[in-house]
Design a protein that fits this description.
Length: about 170
């Protein structure tokens, strides 16, 4: 956990440098995570054991219950995002955010599930699960770019508020 925090902090500072400024922080973390997982999985069993505490730590994170991860991490992430919203603007765009995050995510998830069901022939519940995951967008990079470019606070808060609410809709779906 400490190593993950150190790596995350280092990447956050690296992405603020002019050379790496165009790389979104979340994309870099995703690529680094996928790469490290592929490298670890491609290693032989003996090489994995030779990693010692890092290998055991990786295995512990892979064996964690997904519900525990969601119920401990999601509230912290949502609270962190909610603390940065301009409440006076959020009150004005609240209904638009609710429409986008409620019926908008529901219709998008159903349309995606329908497409997967018809064209790929998957089980309908699997199609709904995939549809709800894909329907809940996470515009972290978009909100950061809007703030950096000086876009309208109404648009920024609208996208940020919808992002906060659509996670809840996707969880219910």
């Amino acid at each position: 956990l400490i190593l993950a925090l150190i790596i995350g902090t280092a990447i956050l500072h690296l992405t603020t440098l002019p050379i790496f400024h165009s790389l979104p922080y979340t994309v870099v973390l995703f690529v680094l995570g996928c790469t490290s997982a592929l490298v670890y999985r491609s290693m032989g069993h003996h090489a994995q054991e030779s990693l010692g505490v890092f290998g055991r730590s990786y295995e512990m994170w892979m064996d964690i219950d997904p519900h525990t991860l969601i119920f401990t991490m999601l509230p912290v992430l949502l609270t962190g995002d909610a603390m940065t919203i301009d409440t006076s603007v959020a009150k004005r765009v609240a209904m638009q955010c609710l429409w986008l995050a409620g019926p908008g995510v529901l219709l998008s998830a159903i349309a995606t599930a329908g497409f997967l069901y018809v064209y790929l022939g998957w089980d309908f519940l699997l199609c709904m699960a995939v549809g709800s995951i894909l329907a809940a967008t996470d515009p972290v990079a978009v909100v950061g770019l809007l703030k950096e470019l000086g876009a309208s606070p109404t648009l920024t808060v609208q996208i940020q508020g919808e992002s906060l609410l659509n996670d809840g809709t996707a969880m219910v779906l």
